[in-house]
Amino acid sequence: MAKKRGNGEGSISRRKNGGWMAQYAVYTAEGRKRKTLYGKTRAVVAEKLTKAMADRDGGLIFDAGKLTVGEYLERWLADSVKGSVKEATYANYGHFARKHICPALGRLKLKNLTPAHVRSFYGEKSRSGLSAATVKKMHVVLHRALSQAVSEGLIPRNAAHGVRTPRVGDPGEEIKPLNPEECAAFLRAARGERLEALYVLALHCGLREGELLALRWEDADLDSLKRLV
Question: Would strands 11-14 and 20-28 be described as parallel, antiparallel, or unpaired?
Answer without folding.
Answer: antiparallel
